[in-house]
Amino acid sequence: ETAGTVRTFDGHGRTADGHDVALLANVADPKAAAAAVEAGAEGVGLFRTEFCFLGRTEEPSVTEQVAAYRGVLDAFPGRKVVVRTLDAGADKPLPFVTADHEPNPALGIRGLRTAVGHPEVLERQLEAIAAAAAATEADVWVMAPMVATPDEAAHFVERCAAHGLNRAGVMIEIPAAALQSRFILAHATFASLGTNDLTQYTMAADRELAGLAELSTGWQPAVLALVEASCLGGAVNDRPVSVCGEAAGDPALAPVLVGLGVSSLSMTPRALADVAAVLAATSSEECARLARLALDQPSAAAARAAVRAELPILD
Ligand code: PEP
Ligand code: MG
């Protein structure tokens, strides 16, 4: 989207007034990890582990899992890597945890919900993540997808602790979780907003349907209000809230998210340089003003237009 100059990223995200905003990468395999390092990513904000196992009919052994996770972790010595536990179901079926037929797969047994029927799969995955973490220099954080309630968050954090994984967080990608974030973040040590699913569930618009693109955008003021609510829940517990959905990689939306209280952004590696450039040109105070401006619009189109008009760097 950004016109003209080719930008690079120096590996340290910050606002114009020097407020740190870690800029991290979303990865699914060692090849993407290498691309993320190349692009200057400060670490990984979302490691989608289910991609290591798509197409498998049986659960990979703990040994296989350790090798798969190390393929990403080893690329980030001394850096944060947020490993997401299996997000199977809906568009990503895995026969060893997901059901064959559900009338509404996006509303079905997916993400952390698969651990209710298959607790041993989660246990073995946490065992493998802990073993991989012990074998590498990366700073390993763990998070669960599709958390809906504080009880689910408490249970996940407890299972992580049993494996010695003390940086245990949750994704906020269900509106209920955003609205209950102050209770969820009393348990979880951090949260990461999955704005792709959060938008889908807020707008009741299938994220896969191109025809619903104008509903399926993080610019929707209702989605931004849930981002703000999530950040308030983080603030009362002194817990960081990040974004790892597509919204984080939109250079005009990134300062809005920071203004809403988000402390780090995780995105496709090729978006890092443009996001870094916009943040470096925008003060924290300006981010807060842009956030308020976007929240006060009646539509996604109006929010996008109002914010872009204030960001000449993107012209
Ligand atoms: C999201 O929902 O925004 C997210 C980052 O997770 P995924 O795209 O893997 O569902
Ligand atoms: Mg998601």
Automatic annotation (TrEMBL):
Entry EC no(s): 2.7.3.9
Cytoplasm among keywords: yes
GO MF terms, alphabetically ordered: kinase activity; metal ion binding; phosphoenolpyruvate-protein phosphotransferase activity
Enzyme class of the recorded protein, top EC level: transferase
Any one biological process term the GO annotation gives: phosphoenolpyruvate-dependent sugar phosphotransferase system
Cofactor field: Mg(2+)
Transmembrane among keywords: no
Domain (PEP-utilising enzyme C-terminal): residue spans on this chain: 14-281
Alphabetized UniProt keyword annotations: Cytoplasm, Kinase, Magnesium, Metal-binding, Phosphotransferase system, Pyruvate, Sugar transport, Transferase, Transport
Any one annotated GO CC term: cytoplasm
Active site positions, chain numbering: C244 (proton donor)
Residues that coordinate or bind phosphoenolpyruvate: R48, R84, N196, D197, R207
Cellular compartment(s): Cytoplasm
Main localization (coarse): cytoplasm
Residues holding Mg(2+): E173, D197
Reaction(s) the record says it catalyses: L-histidyl-[protein] + phosphoenolpyruvate = N(pros)-phospho-L-histidyl-[protein] + pyruvate
Record family assignment: Belongs to the PEP-utilizing enzyme family.
Job description of the protein: General (non sugar-specific) component of the phosphoenolpyruvate-dependent sugar phosphotransferase system (sugar PTS). This major carbohydrate active-transport system catalyzes the phosphorylation of incoming sugar substrates concomitantly with their translocation across the cell membrane. Enzyme I transfers the phosphoryl group from phosphoenolpyruvate (PEP) to the phosphoryl carrier protein (HPr).
Name this protein carries in UniProt: Phosphoenolpyruvate-protein phosphotransferase
Organism: Sanguibacter gelidistatuariae
Residues of the full protein shown: 239 to 553 of 557
